[in-house]
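Hi all, posting the design record for the shared folder.

TITLE: backbone redesign
STEP: 1 of 1
STRUCTURE INPUT:
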């Protein structure tokens, strides 16, 4: 148990250091290419920081523990929308672009509602192969629209002396991703061992320990980005990760292995939808998420975690 706790702390340290490198590389790449930070956050950073969720959910589905796979995704999205945005906004108010409020957040909300409807539709396998195919098709549509907007938003790169070398930016990006994935795996493995030794169910482990561990890259990246004044990458990372989790991860895993869900309740799925609605409402007012709004999101998340822990006891 002591060794597990030590390795868990080491994993967190690796994740935080990797997030710093990832943010520097992503910002440097965005500036060099003349692409907005939000688009970089929605694509490159979001996919990279969602790799832990993808690997955990894929392996869990293949090994016959779908509650852990879906709990990981649902828990990660709640973690992203409430705790990550909340903590990032408390560090520095987050400025939100109009296109994010009008396109990216609604799409993430639609994806959340789609999963809710699929899980509670009463079929024997709560996420069937054709439903997973629909999720994956939605992911393709989202990426097409995002990449098209990136092309439209590309600006002429002005001469600046402080542009990061492109090779250095890519190196930092890859180094950061490697540290995030490696550190997260170290955290999840040891945290899961501790939780299982306490007799906690797969669904609760997925919604709490594993979801929190696999969301460490998003948390670290978004807080570091917010602290450095790059709120575009922070919010883009959260929204992109949410869409990636719901549509790509569950789309792929569901097509490989239909998933019968038992431990994930309507309360968990409702919290996921509500968290996106709150994020949308807070973003719509003045196109900024203020510190008090971030504090409220964080408090609500802690309340939900308390509910889960109380139910597991």
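Okay, here is what came back for every position:
SEQUENCE:
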């Amino acid at each position: 148990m002591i060794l597990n706790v030590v390795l868990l702390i080491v994993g967190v340290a690796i994740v935080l250091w990797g997030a710093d490198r990832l943010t520097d590389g992503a910002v440097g790449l965005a500036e060099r290419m003349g692409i907005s930070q939000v688009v970089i956050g929605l694509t490159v950073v979001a996919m990279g920081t969602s790799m832990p969720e993808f690997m955990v959910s894929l392996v869990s589905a293949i090994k016959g523990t779908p509650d852990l796979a879906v709990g990981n995704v649902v828990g990660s999205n709640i973690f992203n929308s409430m705790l990550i945005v909340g903590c990032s906004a408390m560090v520095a108010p987050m400025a939100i672009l109009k296109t994010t409020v009008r396109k990216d957040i609604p799409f993430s909300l639609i994806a959340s509602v789609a999963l809710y409807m699929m899980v509670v539709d009463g079929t024997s396998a709560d996420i069937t192969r054709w439903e997973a195919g629909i999720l994956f098709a939605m992911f393709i549509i989202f990426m097409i629209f995002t990449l098209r907007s990136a092309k439209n938003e590309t600006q002429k790169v002005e001469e600046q002396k402080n542009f990061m070398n492109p090779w250095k930016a890519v190196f930092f990006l890859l180094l950061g991703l490697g540290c995030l994935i490696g550190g997260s795996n170290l955290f999840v493995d040891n945290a899961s061992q501790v939780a299982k030794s306490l007799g906690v169910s797969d669904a609760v482990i997925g919604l709490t320990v594993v979801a929190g561990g696999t969301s460490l890259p998003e948390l670290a990246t978004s807080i570091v980005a917010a602290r450095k004044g790059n709120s575009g990458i922070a919010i883009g990372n959260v929204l992109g990760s949410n869409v990636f989790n719901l549509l790509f991860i569950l789309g792929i895993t569901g097509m490989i292995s239909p998933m019968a869900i038992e431990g994930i309740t309507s309360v968990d799925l409702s919290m996921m939808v509500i968290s996106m609605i709150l994020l949308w409402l807070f973003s719509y007012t003045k196109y900024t998420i203020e510190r008090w709004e971030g504090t409220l999101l964080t408090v609500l998340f802690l309340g939900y975690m308390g509910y889960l822990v109380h139910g597991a006891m």
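COMMENT: The mean pLDDT is 78.
Let me know if anyone wants the other runs.
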